[in-house]
Specification:
Number of helices: 5
Strand order of the largest sheet: 1-2
Low-confidence stretches: none
Radius of gyration: 23 Å
Strand content: under 5%
Structural class: mainly alpha
Distance between the termini: 56 Å
Order of helices and strands: HHEEHHH
């Protein structure tokens, strides 16, 4: 795979280039640079970004994402701590899913209630 530019990566991931520069500043991403200093993204960098975006979209704070990547850069000696980070995050995600499922049940119940009232009113009473 040939390296790709920051604008191409931003478009591919649906983010702005400044987001990618921010992730770099925060130590989450480490794109390579050309001789002219232009950022280029490799397959490895794209994989890191994919993980970072997954963690961010599931509610992991940036400081924890940064910590994970710092540990990953140190190699296999940090495997247990990285595993702990992912297991803890997984538990938080499962808790959030359970909460959302409860809310969805309440919404579905309310929809059902309103549908029954609309049907009971008959077609002449139904909103147009």
């Amino acid at each position: 795979m040939k390296p790709i530019s920051i604008s191409q990566v931003a478009q591919q991931f649906g983010v702005e280039p400044h987001t990618l520069r921010y992730y770099e500043k925060e130590g989450i991403l480490h794109p390579e640079r050309t001789a002219n200093g232009i950022r280029v993204y490799t397959e490895e960098t794209l994989g890191q970004l994919e993980i970072a975006m997954c963690l961010k979209s599931t509610g992991m704070p940036l400081k924890d994402i940064r910590r994970y990547f710092e540990l990953a850069a140190r190699g296999e000696e940090t495997q247990e701590e990285r595993l702990r980070i992912f297991r803890q995050h997984r538990e938080r995600v499962l808790e959030e899913i359970a909460t959302l499922q409860k809310h969805l049940q309440k919404i579905d119940w309310k929809i059902s209630l309103m549908q029954k009232k609309t049907e009971a009113a008959g077609p002449e009473q139904a909103p147009k």
